[in-house]
Structure formats: structure tokens, C-alpha cells
């Protein structure tokens, strides 16, 4: 069985809680649109999101740890600030620890593979069927091919390197996912999925195993003004370059894409 782990940012870090809930609703509809119903979606939260959509495979799980401020991250100086700004490190710590807690629940429930998904991204409805019918000896898969979607547009940008820029791009065998002591507040202990640009190499370093490439477009990376990474501001500053990408690598959001990813405008 496949587990999808969806961490939810705390309300204090949200610029628009209602919009974040709308994005999450669309993400959960995308997850639950699988052609194979043998999956569980774990939604990990501090404040329970308000989502009208219901599905028996969704499990809302309260995160039983207080929000950790940047000054309380134990490896802030030694590790976190080498890769992130102070505020972003705080966000990433919260997200990473929630993913880890979701993974612990998935492992305890006997899920064989785990995929972490950002609460605003969309996934192909073919993923669960593909994973559940694959060789169980496979250590996992990486989503290299996917789409970038600027909220409200009618086009997608194709990417052959999505795992380098988006976290919703790895499916890992559960017995390879580390679950460290959750009482410890070290970012390095929890960012297994969040350090997505390094995860393929990490699997090699830890286990001498190689992830396979998912053989189809697997994820839609959604860009909007509420992205924690502020990537929408970056794109807007380089509008001409973005338009050129639409021309060279663009794809119209057609009926097939909408059905596969449950992509619709908010």
C-alpha cells in the first residue's frame, strides 16, 4: 500500500488561510483521484484545515509537538543557516518534522512506499496503480518529468528536472525512510524528503541503492502568491523568460491533463 504524506503549515505562517485550504482541497482531490484505491493520505497539522472534500482514505493527524522557532533549532548555526535563511529554516524545520511524523504513522500502518506531497501540488492519478503493481524490491522512484503551473493560467511548463526544484517528487520504500527521535530538534535529522535535490544521492550513500525514474509525468508544481519559497515573485520578475518557456516547453491545460491531475482553476 502507498502512503501520501501531506504536511500543513501552521496558521500563524499563512498569508491567506482560506486560500491555503482551497489549495489543499484541490491537492487532496488530486491524491484521491487515483485509479487504484489502495493508498492512505496522511494530513499532518497543528490547526486542522477546513476542507469540505471528504474521502475514506484521508487521515487527519494532529502534530503533537509545539511549533519550533528558529532559535530553538539545535543545528541552526552548524547546519540550517548554511542552506537557508533563518525564517525559511524555521518553516522547513516545521514542514520536515511533520513529514517525518507522517512517515512514522505510515510505517506503523504497514505502508510499503511513502510519497511526501506539498499541500498545494497535484499528482498523476496513475501513481498508486503503478507503485502497487511494481516490484516490491524497488527502493523507490523519482519524478523527473512533471509540469509547472502558474495559478490561473491555461498553460503548463514541461520540466525534465522537476525533482531538483520541487519536493513532491520522490516515492521511497518505507523501510528506507529514517524516523529519528522526534524529541530532537535538529533539521538535518528530519529533512530526508525536503532535501529533495539530494535525496537520490542520499539513498545511494545510505544504502547503495538506486531510485528508478517514474516513467510518466507525475507531478504538477503549482506556483501562486502564497508559496513559501516566494517563487511566484521570482517568476513575475522574469515574465519574458517565462513566456519564452511557455512557447518552447509549454503545454495547454487540456481535458486529459485536468482529469489526470485534477487540475482546475481556483
From TrEMBL:
InterPro entries assigned to the protein according to its UniProt record, in alphabetical order: Nucleotide-diphossugar_trans
Domain of life: Bacteria
Protein name: Glycosyl transferase family 2
Amino acid at each position: 500500500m502507498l502512503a501520501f504524506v501531506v504536511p500543513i503549515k501552521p496558521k500563524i505562517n499563512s498569508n491567506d488561510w482560506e486560500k491555503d485550504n482551497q489549495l489543499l482541497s484541490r491537492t487532496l482531490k488530486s491524491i484521491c483521484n487515483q485509479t487504484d484505491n489502495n493508498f492512505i493520505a496522511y494530513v499532518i497539522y497543528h490547526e486542522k484545515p477546513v476542507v469540505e472534500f471528504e474521502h475514506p482514505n484521508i487521515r487527519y493527524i494532529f502534530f503533537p509537538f509545539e511549533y519550533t522557532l528558529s532559535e530553538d533549532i539545535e543545528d541552526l548555526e552548524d547546519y540550517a543557516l548554511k542552506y537557508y535563511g533563518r525564517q525559511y529554516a524555521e518553516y522547513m524545520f516545521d514542514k520536515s518534522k511533520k513529514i517525518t511524523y507522517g512517515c512514522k504513522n505510515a510505517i506503523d500502518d504497514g505502508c510499503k512506499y511513502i510519497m511526501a506531497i506539498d499541500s498545494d501540488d497535484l499528482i498523476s492519478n496513475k501513481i498508486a496503480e503503478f507503485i502497487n503493481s511494481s516490484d516490491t524490491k524497488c527502493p523507490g522512484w523519482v519524478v523527473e518529468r512533471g509540469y509547472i503551473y502558474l495559478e490561473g493560467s491555461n498553460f503548463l511548463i514541461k520540466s525534465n528536472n522537476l525533482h531538483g526544484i520541487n519536493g513532491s517528487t520522490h516515492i521511497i520504500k518505507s523501510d528506507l525512510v529514517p524516523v529519528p527521535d522526534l524529541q530532537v530538534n535538529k533539521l538535518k535529522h528530519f529533512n530526508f524528503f525536503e532535501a529533495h535535490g539530494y535525496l537520490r544521492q542520499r539513498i545511494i550513500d545510505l544504502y547503495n541503492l538506486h531510485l528508478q525514474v517514474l516513467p510518466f509525468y507525475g507531478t504538477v508544481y503549482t506556483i501562486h502568491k502564497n508559496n513559501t519559497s516566494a517563487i511566484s515573485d521570482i517568476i513575475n520578475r522574469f515574465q519574458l523568460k517565462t513566456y519564452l518557456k511557455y512557447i518552447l516547453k509549454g503545454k495547454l491545460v487540456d481535458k486529459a491533463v485536468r482529469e489526470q491531475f485534477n487540475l482546475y482553476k481556483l
